[in-house]
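User: I'm putting together notes for a lab meeting next week and I want to include a structural view of one of the chains we've been expressing. I don't have a solved structure, so I'd like a prediction I can at least talk through. The sequence is below, exactly as it appears in our construct file.
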Amino acid sequence: MSDRLNLAVIIGSTREGRWAPAPAEWITGVARRHGGFDVDLIDLLDADLPQHLTEHDMWSTESDPSAPVAALSERLHRADAFVVVAGEYNMSIPASLKHAIDYYMNEWAAKPVAMITYGGKITGGQNAAQHLRQIFPELRTMTIRNTIAFPRFYQDFDERGQFTKFAENEPAAKTLLEELHWWGRALANARSATPMPNPF
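Assistant: Thanks for the context. Below is the predicted structure for the 200-residue chain, given as structure tokens.
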């Protein structure tokens, strides 16, 4: 088995004026330089999931899902690991991210996920990260230990409008990706060796 893993980086906000694409593109670049990942950058705004969550889509049954649901399902299935980039809205995650998580079940299972958060408070979106740590285990998805947070990110732009904190966070990003790669490889091997038991 190749040592390269398929990594999905998910832009978890669809709100107008969102900052999420910037850290998502940054971690995508770091992951590509890492050498152990083939990276798929997924923007939930482009995914255009239907707002009405149907039972067929939610539980991944044999019925035909809508085209947007099927397209995102294929990309999530292909991933061996995830990085979720999310701002903190009202002490939690964006509704668009929860909606996308709830649409799928098997796509997330037995894979690791890392979290990069940001927010207007000193916690840097860590309330969102803690909520994701409660949500993902229900889908049998493992959240890794390391996270990256950007507190009060709006204060860290230079006169050219460039964010100034990415470079100093690159060592933390490399550590996060090393941990994610280890878990991604271990769980990929486990999935190949033995199918996960039905949780129901």
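A couple of points you could mention at the meeting. The mean pLDDT is 91. Helices lie at 21-34, 44-47, 55-58, 67-78, 95-102, 126-135, 170-193.

User: Perfect, that's what I needed.
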